[in-house]
Write a structure and sequence with these properties.
It is a multi-pass membrane protein. The chain is an alpha+beta fold and 729 residues long. Helices cover 60% and strands 14% of the residues. α2 packs across α3. Bound molecules: adenosine-5'-triphosphate.
Length: 729
C-alpha cells in the first residue's frame, strides 16, 4: 500500500471520541474501520465495560477479542514502535495526569502517524511520543478469522432482510401488477380529454361522445375497484410482515446472553421493535408504489414525447434535478433519522424507568423532579423530530419549487406551441395533465429517499440486536440435545475459578468449593463482594476467566447450557413474577396442570400460604407484583423453583423479605429436601448461615475461610465480628 493510500484510508476511517471517556472506544472503532469492519462506539461500550471513568486497556483487549481480533497487550519501546506496520493502540498520559489512548499507524520520514481521538490525525516526532507514552503499553490488533468485514456484514444484513420478506414476494408482486394496471388506466383522463377537445367536440360527433363517455366511466370504475383490491392485499401484507418481523426480532432477542440485557435499556429494545412498521412501509413503497411511480414517469414522458418531442425533453431534463436534490440531502437525512430514533429510545427508557420506580418517586416526593426530567428528555426528542421535520420541509420546499417551475415552464412552452399552431389545444391540456402526474411521481421518488433512509436506519438498529451472537442457536443440536441419561446429581466441585466483568478488575479470584447431595452450603460475605455473581456463573450467565467446574467428577462442559439450566433452579432476592395467576407463575407452563400444582404445594407446605391469598391459586399477580408482599413473592418463587424439579437449588438472599414464620418454614423445608436437592445459599446474615452445613466466607475477592458456624466463629475474624455485631443489635 502506498503512503498516499494509507493516509487516505486513515483519514476516512479515523473516528473522533464522543467524550473524553470514549477515547479508547474511538481508537478501537477507528481500527475496526481501518480493517474494513463496521461497529459503533455504543456497541463497543458494552463489550469493553466502559463507564464514566473511561476504558481500561483490558476492556479494549476483551472488546477486540469479541470482535474477532487476535489481540495482544505488550510492553514495548519506541524502537519496536518504528517497525509497526498495522495500527496499534497506545496508552498515554497527557496534560500531566490525564490517561488517554491514541493510535499509532506507523513510522515514516522520522515521524509517527498518530490518531488522537480528541484531536484528529497528526504527526509526532520520536521525542513528542516518548513524552506522553510513559507506560510503554500497547495493544496490537490483527483481524482473526472471526473478524466480520463490512462487506460480509452487509451480505448478512441483506440475507436476513431477504429471509424476512421472501414470504411476501407473491403478494407484493400482485400488488405491483395491480398498481401498474391502475397507473395505466390513470392515463385515460389525459387521453380522453385530448380526444374530447381536439376531435370529438369540434366534429360534434354525439355517438362517439356517448361511447367515449361510457368507456371512460367503465375505466374509472375498474380503476377504483382494482385500487380497492390492491389496498386489501397491502393491508394483509402489512399485518403478516409486521408479525414476522417482530416475532423474528423478539425470538432472537430472547436468545441473547444475559449480559446483553444487563447492559441494554428496556426502552431501547422496545423502541427498536416499534421501528418494524417503518421498514414495512418502505418495503411496500419500494416493491410496489415505486414501480408505479417509475411507470407513470415513463408512460407519461412517452405520451408527452408523442405529442411534442421538445416538451418531452423538457420533462425528462427535470428528472436529474430531483435526483441531485435527493442525493445532496442523503447523508443529512440519515444522521437526522438516527438521532430521532436514538432520542426516541432514550425517551422510552426514561418512561419505563420512571414508571417502574414510581414507589420511590412518591416516597421521596419527587414527582415534580421526574416530570421535569421527562419533559427535558422528551423536549430533546421533539427537538430531533423538529430538526428532521425542518430538513424534510427544506427538501420539500425545493422539490415543490422545482415542480412549480416545471409546470409553469411546460404550460408556457406548450402555450407558445399552440400559438405557433404546432400543437393542438387538447394536446396541450393532455400534456399539462400528464406533466402533473409525472411531476408528482418524480417528487414521490425523490421524497422516498427520506422514507428509505428512515427504514435503513431502523433496519440497521434492529439488525444490530438481531445479529448479536446468541447464547445458543435455536435448533442447534449440540445446544438442544437432551442428555443421554438423566443427571443423578451427587456432587459439584469448583476449582480455581476466576471471574471479572468486561474491562474490570478481578471480582472473584481462585474460588474453590464443593457441595454434595444432602448438603446446604452458604456463601457469606459483605455486600458487593460477588456472591450473586458467583451464582450467575453457576447458572452459566457469565463465562469464567479461569478454573474448572465438575459435576459428579465430570467436567460440566459435557452438559449443554440449556440442559444444565433445566437442572438448576434459582430464587433471587428481587423476585421476578409475571403478570398472571399464582398457579401460572408456579408452573410456568402453557397449560398448567392445576391438580399437579396443588398436590405439589400441599406436599411441600406452600398450600396453606397460598390459600391465604384472596383467590388462592387464582390470585392474579399484577405487573411488578405490587399486590404481593416481598415475602410472598419469594415464597412463590421458591415454589416455582422446586416445582421445576431441580437437581441443585441456588438461593440468593431468598428469604430476606420473609417474616420469621415463613423463613423458619423455608429452612425446615430446605433441610427436608436437601437429600434430593442440595442447596447453595447466598447471604450476609450469619443467623441464616449458621443453619447450613458449611459456610464459605468471601473476603478480598476470594474464599478466606470455610467450615461450620462453630468452626468459623473460631477461624474467621470477619465472620465472628459479623456474628457478634448481630448479638449486640
Ligand atoms: N453486569 C455487571 N457489570 C459490571 N459490574 C457488575 C455487574 N453486575 C454486578 N457488578 C458489580 O460486581 C460486584 C459484585 O456484585 P454482586 O451482585 O455479585 O455482589 P453481592 O455480593 O451479591 O452483593 P449483595 O450482597 O449486595 O447482593 C458489584 O461491585 C457490582 O457493582
Amino acid at each position: 500500500m502506498t503512503k498516499k493510500d494509507k493516509l487516505r484510508i486513515i483519514s476516512t476511517t479515523f473516528t473522533k471520541q464522543y467524550s473524553q471517556f470514549y477515547c479508547g472506544l474511538a481508537c478501537l472503532a477507528s481500527i475496526v474501520k481501518y480493517h474494513k469492519g463496521e461497529t459503533t462506539q455504543e456497541k463497543l461500550r458494552e463489550m469493553s465495560g466502559t463507564t464514566l471513568n473511561g476504558t481500561s486497556l483490558l476492556g479494549l483487549y476483551q472488546a477486540a477479542q469479541t470482535l474477532g481480533f487476535n489481540a495482544g497487550g505488550y510492553e514495548a519501546d519506541i524502537s519496536n514502535l518504528k517497525d509497526v506496520d498495522e495500527p496499534v493502540i497506545l496508552h498515554v498520559v497527557k496534560d500531566q495526569n490525564l490517561e488517554h489512548f491514541i493510535i499509532c499507524y506507523g513510522f515514516e520520514n522520522e515521524k509517527f502517524t498518530i490518531g488522537d481521538p480528541a484531536w484528529g490525525v497528526t504527526q509526532y516526532s520520536e521525542e513528542e511520543l516518548e513524552a506522553v507514552w510513559k507506560s510503554k503499553m500497547l495493544l496490537k490488533l490483527t483481524p482473526g478469522k472471526n473478524f466480520v468485514s463490512k462487506q460480509n456484514e452487509s451480505k448478512n444484513k441483506q440475507n436476513w432482510f431477504l429471509e424476512l420478506i421472501k414470504p411476501d414476494f407473491p403478494i407484493l408482486g400482485i400488488a405491483a401488477f395491480l398498481g401498474i394496471v391502475i397507473s395505466v388506466l390513470g392515463l385515460a383522463t389525459a387521453i380522453f380529454s385530448q380526444k374530447l377537445i381536439d376531435v370529438i367536440l369540434p366534429e360534434k360527433d354525439t355517438r362517439t361522445l356517448i361511447l367515449g363517455l361510457i368507456l371512460f366511466t367503465v375505466i374509472l370504475l375498474a380503476r377504483a375497484l382494482i385500487s380497492y383490491v390492491r389496498s386489501i392485499f397491502l393491508v394483509r401484507q402489512s399485518r403478516e410482515m409486521n408479525i414476522r418481523f417482530i416475532s423474528n426480532f423478539f425470538g432472537k432477542l430472547l436468545l441473547l446472553p444475559k449480559p446483553f440485557f444487563d447492559s441494554t435499556s428496556t426502552g431501547d429494545m422496545v423502541a427498536r421493535m416499534n421501528d418494524a412498521s417503518r421498514i414495512q412501509k418502505v418495503v411496500v413503497y419500494l416493491s410496489s408504489q415505486v414501480v408505479i411511480d417509475v411507470l407513470i414517469v415513463l408512460v407519461s414522458a412517452g405520451y408527452i414525447f408523442a405529442y411534442s418531442v421538445s416538451t418531452g425533453l423538457i420533462s425528462l431534463l427535470s428528472i436529474p434535478f430531483f435526483g441531485l436534490l435527493a442525493w445532496f440531502y442523503n447523508k443529512k437525512v440519515i444522521v437526522a433519522q438516527r438521532e430521532v430514533m436514538q432520542s426516541y429510545a432514550a425517551t422510552e427508557s426514561k418512561y419505563i424507568d420512571t414508571i417502574t420506580g414510581i414507589k420511590a418517586i412518591k416516597t421521596f416526593n419527587r414527582e415534580n423532579l421526574f416530570a421535569k426530567v421527562i419533559n427535558a428528555i422528551y423536549g430533546l426528542f421533539m427537538q430531533k423530530v423538529f430538526d428532521l421535520g425542518l430538513l424534510g420541509a427544506k427538501i420539500n420546499f425545493r422539490i415543490t419549487i422545482g415542480s412549480a417551475l416545471l409546470l409553469t415552464g411546460t404550460i408556457s412552452w406548450t402555450a407558445w406551441l399552440v400559438l405557433q399552431e404546432q400543437l393542438m389545444l387538447g394536446q396541450m391540456m393532455a400534456i399539462i395533465t400528464l406533466i402533473g402526474s409525472l411531476g408528482a411521481s418524480v417528487v414521490n421518488i425523490a421524497m422516498a429517499n427520506i422514507q428509505l433512509q428512515e427504514a435503513r436506519v431502523a433496519f440497521d438498529r434492529m439488525y444490530e440486536f438481531a445479529s448479536a451472537t446468541p447464547e445458543f442457536e435455536q435448533g442447534n443440536q449440540e445446544d438442544e440435545k437432551p442428555l443421554a441419561k438423566e443427571i443423578h446429581f451427587n456432587n459439584l466441585e469448583v476449582k480455581g475459578l476466576n471471574f471479572r466483568f468486561p474491562g474490570k478488575s478481578l471480582l472473584l479470584k481462585d474460588i474453590n468449593f464443593s457441595i454434595n447431595k444432602g448438603e446446604i452450603i452458604t456463601f457469606f460475605g459483605e455486600i458487593g463482594c460477588g456472591k450473586s455473581t458467583l451464582l450467575a456463573v453457576l447458572q452459566r450467565f457469565h463465562s469464567t476467566e479461569a478454573g474448572s467446574i465438575y459435576v459428579n467428577n465430570q467436567s460440566w462442559d459435557a452438559f449443554p447450557t440449556k440442559e444444565w439450566r433445566k437442572h438448576v433452579a434459582t430464587v433471587e432476592q428481587h423476585v421476578q413474577l409475571f403478570n398472571g395467576t399464582v398457579l401460572e407463575n408456579i408452573s410456568l407452563e402453557e397449560k398448567p396442570n392445576v391438580e399437579q400444582v396443588v398436590t405439589f404445594c400441599q406436599q411441600h407446605g406452600f398450600h396453606d400460604f397460598i390459600m391465604e391469598f384472596q383467590q388462592g391459586y387464582a390470585t392474579i399477580i399484577n405487573e411488578n407484583s405490587t399486590n404481593l408482599s416481598g415475602g410472598q413473592r419469594q415464597l412463590i418463587a421458591l415454589a416455582r423453583a422446586l416445582y421445576s424439579k431441580p437437581k441443585l437449588l441456588l438461593l440468593d438472599e431468598a428469604t430476606a423479605a420473609m417474616g420469621k414464620r415463613t423463613e423458619s418454614f423455608v429452612l425446615k423445608l430446605l433441610h427436608k429436601i436437601k437429600e434430593e436437592i442440595p442447596v447453595i445459599f447466598v447471604t450476609h446474615r450469619p443467623q441464616l448461615a449458621r443453619h447450613t452445613n458449611r459456610i464459605y466466607v468471601i473476603e478480598s475477592q476470594t474464599i478466606s475461610s470455610s467450615g461450620t458456624h462453630d468452626q468459623l466463629i473460631k477461624r474467621s475474624e470477619f465472620y465472628r465480628n459479623a456474628f457478634e455485631e448481630l448479638l449486640v443489635t
